[in-house]
């Protein structure tokens, strides 16, 4: 049974005392899931299904209550798991394995600030970012009242956002800010840009946002094109204020701003006017106030977050400052409430009925028993067009690992390749492979009952036309089309095989009422916890990312060799030397 923190004052007091001071509790070695009786039982179940023959069509025919048994609700999201390659009894086997790997114990450790990111000796407390103000004083971790500190930063962000939105905060010439440009990379970009695109209908202050992440000069050139420097505000997002890509782009943006303001006659280019312009047009999300000040940003306009917030789990922290400006503090609070709704559901719902746990175990089922390598996420909402890209970092950076949290090799496959595009665009691109290819690709289909842009084509409700595809695709993937059905349509015999659909292609349907800030928070938290469940089964530290480091280190060594340092060039491998020589021979300055 999952743990639950009771809300009475006595237990709260005891909990607070327990959490005082540094938490460096030894992390138990991961349970080797593959050696447990519960894994063996799941393997036996898989073998039996294969032996009897997997047939979704038959399973639906045999069990009139299949949909009811495999449907769930969490918050205001509805989940239909009935088109997956499972039977109702599979859910108990999933729950048993979750218990065997001590998922409840690790969940409690995460929620209460134990340093489960043991390779970096850090707590993992993104759930604290969305706890209500009533939880102040209840989560003291490493001597820090986490909720109190979070709420203090949020209050500062909200005050700043209100000033920008109202026009009280202006650019150096007194004009209201009309465009916010967020400069960050990884979690400092993927989350904010995804949320901005998803919630565009809620932008109500006449302020738009642009996002610069790539060190490729083309990114900054295109994102600043057409901007008025007098009405542009840059937000530099870098916890340490040392991230190579972010600080390079920040310096280039600063140069652009000062040159454009001077060209317009808005400033005279003196040091004093330049400094004033930077303070009015740049703010930071960082904890390195010394570096922030060196850049020219007023440290009072820097909003911090903590080392227990990983980049890919940080969109609901100060990293989301651009979102608070564009959508307003009230909408940002709704966003946080959606996260918290799923946090509470995940922590307090029995595994057998916990759709978050079951979806995580379902991914393990496909990855480790069916040996699938990829997982499609297919949102039937154009506003979610950046959601698959966001999930790529969340899932693949978290669980794309071959070493367990105790340093031993993994004992099973890990980490699916997450990918996807919005429907119906994907239908005209890659659905062919999902329907008739040789690879089994489980897919999550996401849609919403209501749209902010209802339209009609004659008498046809266009949103219903759109949702017709959402419903049809999962039906086609599940039940397919037999050769006899194809023949009955009068298809020439020689073409029949090409028009057969085998079916038994698994999907999960996720259906919401509307894509609100609350619902988006729910969706993000859902996948955060699914990722955690998978990582726990595989014994992974899902919160470090050492795999990104080697390439960055080598880039620093190689860059001098590109144009001028022949000694550095000589130190490279033959392939790298050849590529750099091609560059030198063809670069036009």
TrEMBL record:
Localization per record: Cytoplasm
Pfam families xrefs: PGI (PF00342)
Gene Ontology terms for molecular function: carbohydrate derivative binding; glucose-6-phosphate isomerase activity; monosaccharide binding
Gene Ontology CC entries for this record: cytosol
Chief location category: cytoplasm
SUPFAM superfamilies hit by this protein: SIS domain (SSF53697)
GO biological process, one term: glycolytic process
Catalytic reaction annotation: alpha-D-glucose 6-phosphate = beta-D-fructose 6-phosphate
Alphabetical keyword list: Cytoplasm, Gluconeogenesis, Glycolysis, Isomerase
EC number, UniProt record: 5.3.1.9
Pathway: Carbohydrate degradation; glycolysis; D-glyceraldehyde 3-phosphate and glycerone phosphate from D-glucose: step 2/4; Carbohydrate biosynthesis; gluconeogenesis
InterPro entries: G6P_Isomerase, G6P_Isomerase_C, Phosphoglucose_isomerase_CS, SIS_dom_sf, SIS_PGI_1, SIS_PGI_2
Catalytic residues (positions): 397, 428, 552
Purpose: Catalyzes the reversible isomerization of glucose-6-phosphate to fructose-6-phosphate.
Family affiliation: Belongs to the GPI family.
Protein name (record): Glucose-6-phosphate isomerase
Organism expressing this protein natively: Bifidobacterium adolescentis (strain ATCC 15703 / DSM 20083 / NCTC 11814 / E194a)
Higher taxonomy: Bacteria, Bacillati, Actinomycetota, Actinomycetes, Bifidobacteriales
Gene name of the record: pgi
């Amino acid at each position: 049974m999952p743990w639950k923190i009771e809300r009475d004052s006595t237990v709260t007091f005891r909990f607070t005392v327990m959490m005082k001071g540094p938490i460096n509790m030894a992390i138990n070695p991961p349970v080797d899931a593959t050696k447990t009786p519960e894994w063996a039982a799941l393997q036996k179940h898989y073998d039996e299904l294969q032996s009897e023959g997997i047939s979704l069509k038959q399973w639906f025919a045999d069990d009139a209550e299949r949909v009811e048994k495999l449907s769930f609700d969490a918050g205001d999201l509805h989940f239909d798991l009935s088109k997956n390659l499972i039977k109702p009894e599979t859910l108990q086997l999933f729950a048993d394995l979750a218990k065997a790997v001590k998922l409840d114990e690790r969940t409690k450790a995460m929620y209460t600030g134990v340093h489960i990111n043991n390779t970096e000796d850090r707590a993992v407390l993104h759930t604290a970012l969305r706890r209500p103000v009533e939880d102040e004083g209840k989560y003291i971790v490493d001597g820090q009242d986490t909720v109190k500190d979070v709420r203090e930063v949020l209050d500062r962000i909200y005050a700043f956002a209100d000033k920008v939105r109202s026009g009280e905060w202006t650019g150096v010439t007194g004009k209201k800010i009309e465009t916010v440009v967020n400069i960050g990379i990884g979690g400092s970009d993927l989350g904010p840009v995804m949320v901005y695109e998803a919630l565009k209908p809620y932008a109500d202050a006449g302020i738009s946002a642009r996002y610069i992440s790539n060190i490729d000069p083309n990114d900054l050139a295109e994102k600043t094109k057409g901007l008025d420097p007098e009405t542009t505000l840059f937000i530099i997002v870098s916890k340490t204020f040392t991230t190579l890509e972010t600080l390079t782009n920040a310096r280039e943006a600063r140069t652009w701003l000062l040159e454009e303001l001077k060209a317009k006659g808005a400033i005279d280019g003196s040091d004093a006017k330049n400094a004033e312009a930077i303070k009015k047009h740049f703010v930071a999300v960082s904890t390195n106030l010394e570096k922030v000040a060196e850049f020219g940003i007023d440290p009072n306009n820097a909003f911090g977050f903590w080392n227990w917030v990983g980049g890919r789990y940080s969109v609901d922290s100060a990293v989301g400052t651009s979102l608070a400006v564009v959508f307003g503090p009230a909408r940002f609070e709704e966003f946080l409430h959606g996260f918290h709704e799923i946090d509470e559901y995940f922590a307090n719902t029995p595994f057998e009925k916990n759709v978050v746990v079951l979806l995580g175990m379902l991914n393990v089922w496909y990855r480790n028993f069916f040996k699938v390598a990829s997982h499609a996420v297919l949102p039937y909402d154009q506003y979610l067009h950046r959601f698959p890209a966001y999930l790529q970092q969340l899932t693949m950076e978290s669980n794309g690992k071959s070493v367990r949290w105790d340093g031993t090799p993994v004992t099973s496959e890990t980490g699916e390749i997450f990918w996807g595009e919005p429907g119906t665009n994907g239908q005209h691109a890659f659905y062919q492979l999902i329907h008739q290819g040789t690879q089994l690709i489980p897919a999550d289909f996401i849609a919403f009952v209501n749209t902010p842009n209802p339209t009609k084509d004659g008498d046809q409700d266009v949103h219903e036309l759109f949702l017709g595809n959402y419903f049809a695709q999962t039906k086609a993937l599940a039940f397919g089309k037999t050769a006899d059905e194809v023949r009955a349509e009068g298809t020439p015999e020689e073409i029949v095989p090409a028009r057969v659909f085998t079916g038994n292609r698994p999907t999960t349907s996720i259906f919401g009422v509307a894509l609100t800030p609350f619902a988006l928070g729910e969706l993000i938290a859902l996948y955060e916890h699914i990722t955690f469940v998978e990582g726990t089964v595989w014994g992974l530290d899902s919160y470090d990312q050492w795999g990104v480091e080697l390439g960055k280190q080598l880039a620093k060594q190689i860059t001098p060799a590109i144009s001028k340092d022949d000694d550095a060039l000589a130190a490279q491998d033959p392939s790298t030397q050849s590529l750099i020589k091609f560059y030198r021979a063809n670069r036009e300055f």
